[in-house]
Fold this sequence. Notes:
By secondary structure, this protein is α/β, with parallel strands linked by helices. Among the domains are: about 100 residues, no CATH class; about 120 residues. It has 18 helices and 11 strands. The strands form 3 sheets. A 5-stranded mixed β-sheet has the order 9-8-7-10-11, with helices on both faces. Strands 1-2-6-5 form a 4-stranded mixed β-sheet. Strands 3-4 form a two-stranded antiparallel ribbon. Helix 3 packs across helix 4 and helix 4 crosses helix 18. This is ISL3 family transposase. InterPro entries: Transpos_ISL3, Transposase_DDE, Transposase_Znf.
Amino acid sequence: MNELAFYTDLLGLPQATLTGVTVTKTTIEIACTLTDTRTLCPSCGVECTVVNDRTTRRVRDLNISERAVYLVVSVRQFRCPTCGSCPTERLPFADANKSYTHRQARYVFVWCRKQAYSEVGAIVGMHAKTVERLVLDQCRQVEQLPQRYVGLRRLGIDEQSHRKGKKHFICLLTNLDTGTLVDILPDRKKESLVAYFQRLGPSFCQQITAVSCDIWQPYLAVVATCFPQATLVLDRFHVVKLLHQGLDNFRRRLRREAPDEAGYKQLKWLLFKQYHRLSDAELDTLQAAFAVNAELKTAYFLREEFHPILDRPQAVYATIGLLDRWAARIQAQKITLFDSFIRTLQRHKEPIANYVLDNLSNAVTEGLNNLVRSIRRCAFGMPNFQHLRLRVMAISGRTLKLSDNRT
Length: 407
């Protein structure tokens, strides 16, 4: 096998014939011409065969043996016999006006999943701005927003701080059945969410059967306005978090009143764990604290009684009755540390109790929050919302692979 045959087989370029190879210490330049002579006029659609001019395109391809590979392609410009326009041959392995091949673009995109543009640029030998434009172009190709709405039945809604200290939140919408991101909105305001869902049309709103979110009042209003037929389920994590807040406030008060009491140290996370999940050492620590303060023991086991209510597979009305009796027992014992949680429970009993229907939670959305944070960290903040959205949507959806059909 001669040199040109070797490189022809190695590169596998469609509709191209290699005419020469130049190898240096750092680069490999491969000269080639296109074999397809058919070029259609973009204006009138007539086939052009008369060559008007010739030019050369230098396109970056994947490295070979740590050498940068450049395809030097002889490109013909034709003249249309009908309208007189001058279309130029298009490369089947590179987009128009781009200085890299399709597979080089996919390769760089994969590198940028969790790294900054400047770092990837140094690795692949490209300018950071070129890498940024390349990645954003690839993100737009795989965004596929309409396909994300197909089959969406159970919707998750959650927010994340976009710019710390600025009260600037972005809103994440997820498909709780497939565990994928549907879209990211620039804010979490009621007006913005309602307008967004109404733009999708009545058919989309009617196909939603369940919505899971936290206890943020605008979310509850959006669900009532746009998805009145859907079952609203308040995320159990946020409900339990509010319950734990009262217990933790009591622990803090005990620490302030008795800072030298050894029984109150290293107690925070033990109070949050369910009793049957504690190890022997953790049980000893907890029993020591209970021995010092009996009210803490009472509060802890009242908290423990809350979890089995939502763990039982039962009717929603039965769960509401158990929640009412649990709250009444606390109020009868005049324990005030759960007052804030009980007020929330009384306002949202049914959405909280709806959890027993099929244990729907917003855990998928919380997990995607970590993906957004990782992209923001590697991009040193990324204040441009649209760029952040494109990267998260592409990475959380169908990631481009090097085995893509396009060369």
